[in-house]
Amino acid sequence: MNKAIKAGLLLICALVLMGCLETVTLVHVGKDGSGTIEQSVIISNSFKELMLGFGSSEEDFELLDQEELEAKAASFGPGVRFVSAEALETESGAGYKAVYAFDDITTIRVNQNPGENLPSPDSGQPAEEEPEGEFLSFTFQPGSTARLTIRRPELEMEEDTSDQAEAGEVEGGEEMMDMLKNLYRDMRIEIALDVEGDIVETNATYAEGNKITYLALDFGKLLENEETFTVLMESNPNSLEELKELIRDYPGIQMELQEEVKIAFR
Predict the structure, then answer these.
(1) Beta strand 199-202 with 146-151: parallel, antiparallel or unpaired?
(2) Distances (CA, A) of 128 to 71, 88, 213
(3) CB 12 within 8 A of CB 115
């Protein structure tokens, strides 16, 4: 399997290993290229209880740390400013929503890896440098019709000739599926962008109103149908076109596979 396909499918597999995390990143872009980044993060009660049983402490789940959130502004790019943070609490978990502001969207980057938001007992250790391929970047052209491009780094299309077995088959049968349903039913990942005004032209796969969804994974919907979930995990597409066909009809998956998404709005 080539690296481009692995980048999509292994993301889904990696999320299963992370725990029940809900994270939503929404980038608002104005007609002058300025805007805000809203990021909401919720850890489910079931995952918290599981990790406490493995030795994590309550402090590991105190997500609303304003000092850390202020410092995180720099990870979005130069000149990004922390604006505010508030606690979030739902029936299934708790977390926070943080808001950041920027003056020029071409200077920001958005991490596609939701694992950066997962609490860890080692959170106090210096973070390793993120791989370049994790980030979305942007170009912008102002005007009566503003033009914005979302770009991911080019992924090499290389065949994997290793003898290692491909990841996929869900082992453990009905008992394993029940465990997945219970532990990951509230897990949701979303990265989206909305613009000031109306979108007049775009090649985005998932566009509605003035919003573009770049990535959305809802594990609750994915796990509703055991047969389709098993097929997804056992799949081995050999091209981006095959991957597009694979996920087209799967409820719970929206994954933008184009290298560049172009948006014209006014």
Answers:
(1) unpaired
(2) 15, 28, 28
(3) no
Residue 178 identity: D
Angle at 63 between CA 59 and CA 69, to 5 degrees: 125
Percent of the chain with pLDDT over 70: 62
User: Is the CB of residue 215 less than 8 Å from the CB of residue 112?
Assistant: yes
- The listed range with the strongest mean pLDDT (72-81, 108-117, 151-160, 240-249) is 72-81
Lowest model confidence (mean pLDDT) among 23-32, 46-55, 95-104, 197-206: 46-55
Q: Is 55 exposed, middle or buried (0-12, 13-18, 19+ CB in 10 A)?
A: exposed
From the list 9, 39, 7, 21, the residue with the least C-alpha distance to 219 is 21
- Would you kindly state where each structural domain of the chain is located, as residue ranges? 3-120+131-265
Q: How far is CA 153 from CA 26, 168, 207, in A?
A: 20, 26, 22
Supply φ then ψ for residue 220, to 5 degrees: -60, -45
- Is the model's pLDDT at 77 over the cut of 70? yes
Residue (of 248, 249, 253, 251) closest to 213 by Cα position = 253
Q: Provide the 3-class DSSP secondary structure of residue 14.
A: helix
d(Cα 120, Cα 211) in Å, to the nearest integer? Answer: 32
* Tokens 């080692």, residue located: 122
Comparing 6-10, 140-144, 228-232, 260-264, which segment has the lowest mean pLDDT? 6-10
Is residue 113 within 8 A of residue 131, CB to CB? The reply is no
**Cα torsion 159, 163, 166, 167: sign:** negative
* pLDDT for 136: 94
CA 163 centroid distance within chain: 30
Helix or strand run (H / E) with residue 39: strand 35-44
